[in-house]
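Next up, a specimen:

>
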Amino acid sequence: MEEVENFCQHVAIMKKSEMLAYGTVNELEEQSGTTSLNDVFLVLTNCDGVDDRKSANGEE
């Protein structure tokens, strides 16, 4: 996320092909009440930071 914050003027947060938010990093932080782009992503996607995909061997 640091690269995005440093190099991109605008950011789109997407989940399952749906755009959840679009704007500057500062705008997204203000809208979500967070202080980092990583936290913006977690709040908007309702994730807890744990990957919920199946592992390569099929275990969850």
Summary: The chain has three helices and two strands. The mean pLDDT is 83. The helical segments are 2-7, 25-32, 37-45. The CA atoms of residues 29 and 35 lie 6 Å apart.
